[in-house]
Every structure is written in C-alpha cells, then in structure tokens.
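Quick one, T. Sequence first:
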Amino acid sequence: MPPTIVSPADCEVRAVIRFLSAKGVKPIDIHREIVEVYGQNIMSDGMVRKWVRAFKDGRTNVHDEERSGRPSVVNEDLVQKVDETVRQNRRFTISSLFDCFPQYSHSVLYRIVTENLNYRKLCSRWVPKMLTDLHKTQRLGSALTFLERYHNEGEDFLDQIVTGDETWVAYVTPESKQQSMEWRHSSSPKRVKFKQTISARKIMCTVFWDRKGVLLVEFLPRNETINAASYCETLKNLRRAIQNKRCGKLSKGIVLLHDNARPHVANQTKDLIKSFKWETLDHPPYSPDLAPSDYHLFLHLKKHLGGRRLQDDNEVKTFVMQWLTSQAAEFYQEGIQKLVPRYDKCLNIHGNYVEK
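Structure tokens:
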C-alpha cells in the first residue's frame, strides 16, 4: 500500500512519535504506525527509539536544535537530485556519486544518502521460490485470516496451535561463516578453511510442538519414506502425546499448523484430522517463512549442529533429543508468538517473503 502522506516535515513525524509515546505505545508499534502512513523509508526503528528516549527524558521540542558553525549546504533540491541519481543505479558508490556532484564532498554525499534518504546497502537474499501473483494473493489471504482470528481470540488462539514438520539431520554439519568468525588483530594472518558440504549420511526427524514445548519426536527408519499412511500413524501418536502431556488441550480444540507437503494434504490425512475434530490452519504454499518449525525451531537446531561430527544414527538421535528437551518453555513460546508479527509484515509487504 503506498504511503498516505508523502514527504512530511521531520517535525511532523517527531510530533507523532511524541504523541504516541505519551499514550504509552511501544517504540516497535510506533514505527509500524508511521511506516503505514508515511512509507517504509520515513525513519528507521532505531531512530524512532532514539526519539522516544529523548521525549521520555524531558525533551519537548520536535524541531532541530540550532547549531553553531557554517550553514548546511544540504537542501531539499540537492537531496531530491541525489535521490533521482541513486534510483537510476542502485549499485552506485559514493565515489561514482561524487562524479555527478563534484561540488560536494564525499562526506556530505554520504550523509545525504544515509541520513536524509535513509538508504542502506543490502545484498540480495535467497528465497525458496519466486512468488507469482497467485502465491502472493494466497499469502495475503492467509495473513488476513490469521490476524483477524488473533484479533478476536487473542492468546487463546495461539494456545490451541500445534505445529510440526520434518527435517534432515546430518552426521556432519559445517560451521556457518558467522560461527567461524574470530576476534583478531588487523595484522594477523587470515585463517583459511576448507569448504565442506553437508554429510550424505543423515536421518529424517519429525517434531511436533506447541507454546509449552515438544509434544512428539519421531525418526524415520532407514529405507522408508513418509507417505499418507505413515503420516497418519504419526498424527495418531501425536494425539496420544497431547492427551498425555497437555491435560485438557484436546477438549479446548486443536489448531494444526503444517505445510502443504503431499502426505499432509492427502485425502487419507484430511479424513483422519476430520475424525479427530481438529482444525487445520491455512498455510500458503512455498511459505517456510510462515512456518514456526522452519523459521525458528529447525533454524536454531541447525545452528547448534554447526561444526559437529556425529558418528551414527543413535548419536544423532541422542543429540537432537537432548537439545530439544534443554530448551526452555520461553523458546517454544517465542516461536509460536512470532507468527503474529510475521503475518502482519507479510500483509504490509503485499505477500512477499518476510525477512529473517
């Protein structure tokens, strides 16, 4: 959705921040409110927090403070010209920008780009699939349905959710680049590391969980595949696990959140879920960014596996079980709770992928 108000004065935005802060609105919600009205590039979340702190510390002036020294060479006309130049070539450098505006210093141009225009240099991000308009429409529909229900039912709705998925767990998982970073002097020789691939030896792990923790963990026997029949057996085991571990949860109603893998949407599976009187939460295709197991549980598990070498299936199973049971209840609650801001962001960015 395009911004309702274009190019507002800085003092106007600051006045809105002061007003909302005085009402007790959280900085993250203030940032979302002003972005909805003024557009994505109006002000960063960090700058909103800075102004909230300033107003709480007693500041009342929403205008820039008077500064001593030479008058600024930056004006609205210059900022607009720089913006037009940047839009023509998003891969510009400050040096190439200087060639277009030689009368201004590199530092002035850098300040215009980063402060006045609020640009940041970002690299492209890998996504599971290039979403079509149909995919985005489906994601928007799911987001609307979820957020409306959360608005009506609140935390009780999240308490009903049971989610799960499958993932491969390898014997050897290489360290990520970030995990291998070290503090060193600038003069120290650079370490080199051999490029590793994920081990071909691996086992399939299925995990179901809710806000309180893990409900069911299963490991697929070798030379077997997950099909509708085996998945139905897993769901029967899940129902027994809920009955044993979550007293009263079945009677309150289960909202099952799983992806659209073929065994999950087979008629046999649907019939079983219907016989349980469970509800299936709509999950759009090609949307791991809206699946708690993908964006939270398995993401942290794989990070913890980074750099480890496990010897056999039993060692893998032991490691996974110990890691899952060692996580506090807050960890699982956070994973489910993230659905709310993620669906909200999906709605605000018109169905595109939600960043990490």
